[in-house]
Amino acid sequence: MTELEQKIQMVNLAKSLFERGYTVGGAGNLSVRLDENRILVTPTGSSLGRLTAERLSVLDMEGNVLEGDKPSKESVFHLEMYRKDPKCNAIVHLHSTYLTALSCLEGLDVENAMRAFTPYYVMRIGKLQVIPYYRPGDINIARELGERALTGKAFLLANHGVVVKGSDLIDAVDNTEELEETAKLQFILQGHKIRYLTEAEVKDLENRGK
After folding, report:
1. The pLDDT of residue 209
2. Is 88 helix (H, G, I), strand (E, B) or coil?
């Protein structure tokens, strides 16, 4: 994929997320690794529904702007995750409705905020770790995510939203959509007896993914 094709793909996927209600206003940001030394990230304050390829931000791994508009202030944690996890090639950060609602609940298991009840959650995500609350843009979000970058695919930012990794941008978006749907199902099932997957069933799914 050429760099221009990657930019067009980001614009199209971002617009799709916006039009389907996964994000509103100027919330959320996407990034993708262009090569070993550069990433592409959505600009600060930009609506995911109104991006243009020529205004996307290109940064080096130290955070210097190489082209495009000023990047999202949250590009700091994107960069830290790329630096810590060489296999991470794309990141989606959204304030999607059900995952953000989940992030506002007390008493979540910080090692896994959603116990598995569908095979798709296990195959796509595995577990959902919780990052403590920090104000948006706080450097501690980058520190926390960097420390956990090699331990999972998705991270719930308390009272904030979700951060999801992928092998490429399509994979990261697919992972995010599956995770949001799982959170939606969890709220729908509140008050009902849920048949959770057993440890053996989860292990079987994990083994099939190796």
Report:
1. 63
2. coil
Options 19, 54, 120, 196, the catalytic residue: 120
Q: Is the pTM of this model over 0.85?
A: yes
DSSP state letter for 53:
G
Q: Are 155 and 99 in contact (CB under 8 A)?
A: no
119 DSSP 8-state letter: H
Residues in the chain: 210
Q: How far apart are CA 41 and CA 32, in angstroms?
A: 7
pLDDT exceeds cutoff 70 at 210: no
Residues 29-47 have a mean pLDDT of 97
Assign domain 3-208 to a CATH class: alpha beta
Indicate if 74 belongs to the active site. yes
| Residue 180 is among the residues annotated as catalytic for this protein | no
Tracing tokens 């009902």 back to the chain, one arrives at 192
Residue 39, beta-bridge partner list: 33, 59
Task: Tell me which of 74, 80, 144, 177 is the catalytic residue.
Answer: 74
Radius of gyration of the chain measured on its C-alpha atoms? 17
Residue range 165-181: mean pLDDT, rounded: 98
